[in-house]
Specification:
single chain, 307 residues, two-stranded antiparallel sheet, 1% strand, 72% helix, 15 helices, 2 strands, mainly alpha
């Protein structure tokens, strides 16, 4: 009898959860349609796909598209560019927000602190189409504000968006300026969770602001720093298509061409759909591997779990 009553109680406790599960269905349906549905098209990676014939009638070529991509002279350079740019962005997006969060944490005027938080967060909402146009105007070698300042200092104008030496740094700097405000707010939230008595104890021990930062603030932020750092590994092959596409040109393909822009050109411009799909599938497999490793490390180092 006890088991029957406990079973009835469990069923009754699940009834109020039914509306919550029904609320999930629209989102789940969208994920299935737009995230998992297109995965059926991955079969194109193993075909010589012709749109007029469709998936079912296109010739099957096996791994030929993958061999073709690996034989291209620019493939390794593109892969190297993607990894280098992605890692540079990951490091910048880790260091800059921490520094800004520590500086804002020292501000005592709340109105100034909130105003700065809003200002640094605003670029996050601007698209790269808008920012790309702004950067082209600012960095123009003939009419740009930055080069006008360099000329005033007696320095020759620099073609930042057309020079292979400078282009990667432009990508990293502009991406950091656009996105660091988001992580800054995350770190500021982590700072509010530090016990104030730890600062009081540090002051009693004679620690100044710098010592308090080293021995109280940074250790208090350690878990969230480790978590965000590890989770960013999943983006190791995402160097930012929107940004690169709006800023690059054939002059900087040597250092600025990445996997996503390569897929765009070879797939949509050259109509080699099978080859483009093969490159995209390779990227997805590598990204899945890094994401799996990153979540494992997040669990081991920061006790972070998805489920």
């Amino acid at each position: 009898m006890a088991s029957l009553s406990s079973g009835k109680n469990q069923r009754r406790s699940r009834i109020p959860q039914i509306p919550l599960h029904l609320m999930i269905l629209p989102g789940l349906l969208l994920v299935l349609i737009y995230n998992y549905g297109p995965m059926l098209g991955l079969v194109i990676a193993f075909q010589k796909f012709v749109p007029a014939r469709g998936i079912w009638d296109s010739a099957w070529v096996g791994l030929e598209n993958f061999r073709y991509v690996m034989a291209l002279p620019d493939t390794m350079q593109i892969l190297r560019n993607t990894i280098v740019i992605a890692f540079m962005k990951m490091i910048a997006q880790l260091v800059v927000p921490i520094i800004v969060a520590l500086l804002l944490n020292e501000v005592r005027k709340q109105w100034f602190k909130r105003s700065m938080q809003t200002m640094i967060y605003l670029p996050h909402f601007l698209s790269w189409i808008i920012l790309g146009g702004i950067l082209v105007d600012i960095l123009s070698p003939s009419e740009g504000i930055l080069n006008a300042g360099l000329s005033w200092l007696g320095i020759e104008p620099i073609y930042f968006l057309g020079d292979n030496h400078w282009f990667r740094f432009v990508l990293v700097a502009s991406d950091t300026w656009k996105e660091f405000g988001f992580n800054t707010i995350v770190y500021l939230a982590a700072l509010t969770g530090i016990n104030p008595t730890l600062y009081e104890a540090a002051i009693v021990d004679g620690a100044g602001r710098w010592k308090q930062t080293l021995h109280v603030t940074l250790p208090g932020m350690a878990s969230i720093i480790i978590l965000l750092s590890v989770l960013s590994l999943g983006n190791v092959l995402n160097a930012g298509f929107d940004q690169v596409f709006n800023l690059y040109s054939p002059q900087v393909y040597e250092t600025g061409d990445i996997i996503d822009t390569f897929v765009y050109r070879i797939g949509l411009e050259d109509a080699q759909y099978g080859v483009a799909t093969a490159v995209g599938l390779f990227k997805s497999i590598v990204s899945l591997t890094f994401i799996s490793v990153s979540y494992y490390l997040a669990y081991r180092l920061a006790n972070y779990r998805i489920f």
